Amino acid sequence: MQVEPEGEVLVEPLTILDRREVQLRKRVISQAKVQWQHYGPEEVPWEDEELLREAYSNLFQGDGHRDDVQSQEGEM
Length: 76
Description:
Elements: E1 2-3, E2 9-10, E3 13-24, E4 27-36, E5 46-48, H1 49-55, E6 70-71
Parallel strand pairs: 3-6
Antiparallel strand pairs: 1-2, 3-4, 4-5
């Protein structure tokens, strides 16, 4: 486990378990359900896919992500 000098624990995403698109007013937001290092399966959050791609592009290499997006409206 890597710890920053400020005492913060650094965690890395292990895998993307699922994807969805959420309708927010007039925008559609792509989200990914991420399994994070050191967290159990009950603690798997939905994350903004665009931010994940910026920070962890290696998770999406060779990934045809648009083909398997499951649409769900309104939930976050």
